[in-house]
Design a protein that fits this description.
Shape: globular
Number of helices: 3
Mean pLDDT: 93
CATH superfamily: Response regulator
Helix content: 25-40%
Strand order of the largest sheet: 2-1-3-4
Oligomer: single chain
CATH class: Alpha Beta
Structural class: alpha/beta
């Protein structure tokens, strides 16, 4: 098993379930961590809030990040990631189901 998890940030429960199932069906050999809004994602990545004490030196292999999230948008999350040396190089894939 890969020691780096995948972080999936998605507020729609149906989209979240579909994404996690697809990753598992495609053979993801690592833990899949989920966050339902931008603030929860940043808490996980920076070891804050309910994730206080998490080893922040062990960042995800990559982040699947919804663009439209409650609390903080996906773009706000991405800006925070890129502005911090701890997370600046973590690969991010931005997703949206918006037709805009």
């Amino acid at each position: 098993m890969n020691d780096k998890p995948i972080l999936v940030v998605e507020d729609n429960p149906d989209h979240l379930e579909l994404t996690v199932l697809t990753l598992q069906e495609q053979g993801a050999d690592t833990a899949i961590v989920t966050a339902r809004d931008g603030a929860e994602a940043l808490d996980y990545l920076f070891g804050q809030g309910v994730h206080a004490g998490r080893d922040t030196q062990k960042q995800p292999a990559f982040v699947l990040l919804d663009m439209k999230l409650p609390k903080l948008s996906g773009l706000d999350v991405l800006r925070s990631l890129r502005s911090n040396p701890l997370t600046a190089l973590v690969p991010v894939v931005m997703l949206t189901s918006s037709s805009e």
